[in-house]
Structures are given as C-alpha cells and as structure tokens.
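INPUT
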Amino acid sequence: MIFYALLTFMVVSALALLWLRNLFAVVMLSGSFSLNAAVLYVVMDAVDVAFTEAAVGAGIATVLMLGTLALTTSHEKADPGVSWPHLAVVVVVGAALIYGTLDMPRYGDPMAPIHQHVAPEYIERGPKQTGMPNVVTSILASYRGYDTLGEVTVVFTAAAGVLALIGRRRKKKNGVIKRTRSGERP
Amino acid sequence: MKSLRVMSKRRRREMQHKEVLRVCSKLLIPLIMLFALYVQFHGDFGPGGGFQAGVIFASAFILYALIFGVDVGMKVLSPGARRFFLAAGLLLYAGVGIVGMLLGGRYLNYSVLLQDPIAGQHLGILLIELGVGVTVAAAMITIFYVFANQDDSE
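OUTPUT
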C-alpha cells in the first residue's frame, strides 16, 4: 500500500517537474523526489542504496543545483511548445521499456534467476571468506573491488574535470593571472 | 548575473542576526562529522560505507559554508589540502591492491595482507573504504567550493 502511495507521489512530482518554470522550485522538488526514492528503497529493504540516494540525491545534488542556479538563472526560458515528432519518439521508447519490464521476474520472486545461484553463493561464502556481517559491503569492497575502484575513479575524475573546467581562479587579485568569466586567459 | 559571493556577503550581514541558524549548525556540525565517521567505520556491520560517509562528511563542510559564508568556509580546508585528499583516497585504494600484489596475491585480494586471511580482508576493506570516503568527501567539497566561488569577480 505504502509502496503505491510512494510511487504515485513520485509520478506526481515528476509531472510537476515538467510543468514548473521556476527552477528553484524544480530543484527543491527533485530533492523531494530523491527523498521519496530513498524511502521506496527502504520499503524494498535496500537500506544501503536508500542511504546513498538520500545523501547524494536529496542532499548534495540539491546543493550543487542551487549553486548552479546562483551561477546562471533561476527561471527557465519560455516554453517552446510541443514538438510532436519528439513526443512520438519518447512515447514509443517509453512503451518499449515498459514492455521490456513485463518479462522481468516479479519483485521478491524466490524463483528469479538471480536467487538461483548468484545471491545464495555470496550469502553463503561472504561471511566465511571475508568475516563481514554485511554482505553488501563484502561484495562491494572485496568481491567487486575492481568495480568500486572504478567508481571512485569516476568520482575523482568528475572533481578533476570540474576543477579543470571552471575551478581555476585568478591567483593574484591585481591582475597578473586574470581570468575572464568564461575561464579563458585573456 | 548574480554572484554567490555577493549574495553571501549580503547573506553574511543577514546571518549576523540569525542566531538560531548559527547556534543550531554549530551544534549539528560536530554530530554530522561524528555520524559520518560512524557510517565510515561501521559499514562492515551495518548499512553504509565509504561513499555515504564521504558525502555526509562533505555535507558538514557545506553546511558550515552555507551558514557562515563561502569564503570563511574555504579557509577551513585549503585548496592544496582539498586536491591532496582528492588524490590520496584513490591512491590509497589502488595502493592496497598493489601491496596485495607485492605480497603474492592478485590485485585487490586482501587475504594476503595479513597472516590470517579473514583479518587481512578486514584490514583491506577498512583501508579501501577509507580511501573511498576520503576521495568522495574531497570531491564533494571541491565541487561545491568551485561552484560557489565561481563568480568571485573583483
């Protein structure tokens, strides 16, 4: 029941996000959308994912978006109107994706392929081989250590990219390395 | 274009009067950091881990900068320190893998780090989670400061 209430609320938020023109409201609403998603993950017993979603999606992403608004503008330009070919493409792709989910096993189905050999093996081996009570940590940090290393590299690259693109500030106040707003050396 | 710096200057004057915000955030910031450390080192036993801990730790810095002004917040961690931590976490992670290789295991196999394979796994996971946390926290703080300070003209 709460499951459907949350999903309904998320759909309503998504539609409102489409219609709103005030970007400040959009940022706030997308934060609440993320918080809803986090609650949904808790309902689905995925606490680790919920934790990340609440911290990143509802917390940091909102702050960064607000920072972006302060840099740019907080009001979207006028609605260019509906483009029917684009709408048709979106509807067809969306329908195909929904059609694709019909083949997936039901949520929590014990006969789902993932519960046949992968999950039981990690649950069986994880605590024995790593001594970690939290199977998620044992998978993320040990069995899938390469993936996590890749993720951290992505985070590092993102920060390095932001620094390279817009992070260089004028070092001297009075002119030696003055930079224009676009970040180019004049 | 409005600048966050200009806003924060004006905001800072307003903030002089916002006692409640300042007092509450002063109370909360140490607790947020403590919670981040708990999430960091308790990730083996409960939900959480380096990624979440890093984000929570960074949020303490961001809260400080939002309440007391970005330029005051930037003094807490110098740009050099931010870049150092950004790279140090990733290098710690990759370094644990290389140490494992030098000790005769495969890359990122922690069992060879200590005599007892389970203790080795514990140590390895603790270290790489620490690396994840340090890099993620530094990345979030860096991105926030870059965004907030971008319009720092004249």
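end of record. Residues 172-186 of chain A have pLDDT under 50 and may be disordered.
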